[in-house]
Amino acid sequence: MASLGKKILSAFIEVTDSDQQQAAPETQSHTALQAPVSKTETHTDAATGNKFRDHFNKLFADANLPGPDYFEFSKMTEAMQAIADEKARYCAAFAGLQVQGMDKHKLLSSAQQYVQMLEADAAAFHSTIDQTVVEKVQSRKKEIDATQQRIQQLSQEIIQLQKLTETLNNEIAENEQKLENSTAGYAAALAHSKNKLLQDIEKIKQHIL
To answer: Is 175 domain-assigned?
Structure first.
């Protein structure tokens, strides 16, 4: 039954399973049966609602056994919508099938079988939903967590690199200042030494004959 759920779900999202190859829509060979309408308010677009209705219509049609049962009864009551009185409509549909061998017990028991079929289909669908949540949602959440951790790691690396850049800039400024001081000190000492040397040369020439 899990593959059945995958076939339903694969019509709307990608299901990573070999059963996905069987998910293509099949041509209906029977008249569609109106699926039960839930009273719970849901928010689905028309295309999604139609696909699910088509699924349930085909589910009933494929499960229909030879001979009259609830499936044929349902079709007949739908065909008799012109009869306004519901009781008259139900009785007329039952009378038409009764001549073909259907009784009230078979009608109710076959209807209960369709209920069980719907419950089995729902179980398969929800099982597939749970699996898909793990595959498609939880895995993406893990990727998000890993990405956020990576962002935090990179942010820390950026902070460290900014601190390193600041340290290097300070070292550069300090070294430049030292070089400027050394250059200025050297130039001053050079000028003083050269000046004294030139003065001594002149004095030697002057004083020593």
So the answer is: no
Sequential DSSP letters for 134-150: IIIIIHHHHHHHHHHHH
**For residue 106, how many other CB atoms are within 10 A of its CB?**
17
Burial of 205 (C-beta count, 10 Å sphere; 0-12/13-18/19+): exposed
Reading the block at residue 62, the tokens are 């494929």
Query: 0.85 cut: is pTM over it?
Result: no
The dihedral region occupied by 101, where left means phi > 0, alpha psi between -120 and 50, and beta the remainder, is left
Residue 102 included in any domain: yes
- Residue 165: inside a domain: no
Structural domain for 132, as ranges: 2-148
Residue with tokens 């109710």: 108
159 lies in some domain:
no
Closest of 63, 57, 49, 40 to residue 116, by C-alpha = 63
The count of domains in the chain is 1
Q: What is the pLDDT of residues 70-120, one digit of tens each?
A: 989 999 999 999 999 999 999 999 999 999 999 999 999 999 999 998 999
Distance of alpha carbon 153 from alpha carbon 159, whole angstroms: 10
